Amino acid sequence: MLYKCAIPILIGIILLANCSRYPGITTGIPEKKPDQVEAAAQVSIPDSAVIVPQPEIKQARCVYLTFDDGPNSHYTGIILDILKKYGIHASFVVIGNNIEKNQDVFRRIINEGHGVVNHTFSHDYTKIYASPEAFLDDLQHCSQVIAMLTGNSVKIFRAPGGPSKLSKNYYNLLDKHGYKSLGWNVTSADSDPKGATAEQIYNNVVNGVINVEKMNRVPIILMHDGTEINPVPSAPGPALQNYIRTRESDVVALPKIIEFLQARGYTFAVVDDKTPSAW
Predict the structure, then answer these.
(1) What percent of the chain shows pLDDT beyond 70?
(2) Mean pLDDT value of segment 182-186
(3) N or C: which end of the chain has fewer CB within 10 A?
(4) How many structural domains comprise the chain?
């Protein structure tokens, strides 16, 4: 009898072991403090605007939440508070010059057990896509900044604009230096210059996860905590207003996205060298 009871426990342990474990923008808007996170998370998304598929809980399976372009002095901290509240981990796809501006925020990412992915130092398309060598130099610059604060370089990277921006020559050079590309297969579409609402971000993730499940892929979800925004002396223009509104939408949508993934039986993993390819 004890033998029969031990089997499902052993299977559960093996399944969970397969999941990778944890190894103030100045814009004229009021700064949110940590105790405001719960209130932001409780902002309701109208049921009529939300796709709510029935949970289909089977076995333990992994999902990767990734946040691009930070760290920044405002939204990164709010996202970290939400992740801490739910007791889960994510991966932050960081830009080197933003790390230098927000070292305390970056240290918090590390200290709270989240993953880190190299997103180049400058994120300057003109500079990094001038040649494979220019891209590698910018990537290594970011890796050096990360190593100064953590003691370890990071060889997993995400190309600004996505892996399709890189030609074979880029990949050949990066492979020689031990770099591994990280893509995504679920996008929140929160980088739309026209902006995105919390409802749109939530539904984009839900639809994307369901489609990826049909293809038997591991969901790698693309979201943004966002870059540091320079101080502005007057009211922000339309583009910046859309950017701010979308970051606010990310904050509102994130708790419901987490709850949706939990209801489907997902374990939240951090990106490492065992993370499967997106496609």
Answers:
(1) 76
(2) 98
(3) N
(4) 1
